[in-house]
Amino acid sequence: MPDTVHVLNGPNLNLLGTREPEVYGRATIADVEAACRAACERHGLDLVFRQTNHEGELVTFLQEARGSRGVVLNAAAYTHTSVAIADAIKAVGLNVVEVHLSNVFAREAFRHHSYVSPVARGVICGLGVDGYRLAIDALATAGDRVS
Ligand code: DQA
């Protein structure tokens, strides 16, 4: 379990590749998973990669990540609305790196607030699929510093 990283994706990210490509790029969710798998392999880590369109399921996925090295979380729109997801992160004491493909701060004002950020270890946004890789690198190399 401590050698496993969970990458959890929220609503509409299953549509990556065709969803607003000018905002989110052309990479599909399968491309994101492949990039995450390659990053984990480089660090000798196992990967659990999941996507859901349902808020409660994301809460369950977070609970199931207990005991892992950490979580890369793109909660998508739930980032901006979900107290339940923030509570789950606090409840399980996970190292979470919040990731967004787009630069949410360069977009609509409602995307500037995140319920996840105050309970996350770090935040990466605006770097596309690279953000996922960088988050995995951080979880892999930060060791005890990430607490
Ligand atoms: C997103 C940004 C969110 O504001 C949006 O609701 C998403 C995707 C991103 O990866 O840029 O669905 O999390």
UniProtKB/TrEMBL annotation:
The record marks R19 as: Transition state stabilizer. It comes from the Bacteria. PROSITE patterns: DEHYDROQUINASE_II (PS01029). Its EC number is 4.2.1.10. Gene3D superfamilies: Dehydroquinase, class II. It catalyses: 3-dehydroquinate = 3-dehydroshikimate + H2O. Substrate binds at N74, H80, D87, L101, S102, R111. It holds the Pfam family DHquinase_II. InterPro entries: DHquinase_II, DHquinase_II_CS, DHquinase_II_sf. Pathway: Metabolic intermediate biosynthesis; chorismate biosynthesis; chorismate from D-erythrose 4-phosphate and phosphoenolpyruvate: step 3/7. Keywords: Amino-acid biosynthesis, Aromatic amino acid biosynthesis, Lyase. The active site is at Y24 (proton acceptor), H100 (proton donor). GO terms for biological process: amino acid biosynthetic process; aromatic amino acid family biosynthetic process; chorismate biosynthetic process; quinate catabolic process. Catalyzes a trans-dehydration via an enolate intermediate. Homododecamer. NCBIfam families: aroQ (TIGR01088), PRK05395.1-2 (NF003805), PRK05395.1-3 (NF003806), PRK05395.1-4 (NF003807). Belongs to the type-II 3-dehydroquinase family. This is 3-dehydroquinate dehydratase. The lineage of its organism: Bacteria, Pseudomonadati, Pseudomonadota, Alphaproteobacteria, Hyphomicrobiales.
